[in-house]
Design a protein that fits this description.
Length: 147
């Protein structure tokens, strides 16, 4: 399996987690005293869905099915998110803290991918998405600090 395919599979799983996580966090914050935070998190969920589709489509162009079931590492991470979600409740600070944790994980996965021997075209996509994920993490951190 090529480094592109390996990285793509990990990133697709990370992006699925982010898409779901942001959507759930937005839902928890609807009706909170800061409805604009829910809108921001929903926007980031949609961004992750777009990033995931971009990587999956690129993989299909190369003949790779990168949207298969996830790896054990990703499943373990999703399990940790579910456990964290069960204990944090609907408190805005806790929800945003969980989102920051998820974003730190996403940034880390992108950085691992960028250390791999990626093709030029895929590296450009990963680099661009990485910059957006870093920006999103900083945006969520700013919301957390404003709480």
């Amino acid at each position: 399996m090529s480094d592109d395919a390996k990285a793509a599979k990990e990133l697709v799983e990370t992006l699925k987690d982010g898409e779901r996580g942001f959507a759930q966090a937005a839902e928890k914050l609807r009706g909170d005293e800061h409805p604009e935070w829910a809108s921001t998190l929903q926007r980031l969920s949609a961004q992750r869905a777009g990033f995931r589709r971009e990587i999956v489509d690129m993989g299909h162009e190369y003949g790779d099915d990168v949207d298969e079931s996830g790896t054990a590492t990703s499943a373990l991470h999703r399990g940790w998110i579910a456990l964290k979600d069960a204990v944090t409740g609907n408190d805005a600070g806790s929800v945003l803290g969980a989102a920051v944790t998820g974003e730190n994980h996403a940034v880390s996965e992108y950085e691992k991918a960028l250390e791999m021997d990626l093709s030029t075209g895929f590296r450009q996509v990963v680099s661009r998405q990485h910059a957006s994920v870093v920006t999103a993490r900083d945006e969520v951190k700013a919301l957390q600090l404003a709480d």
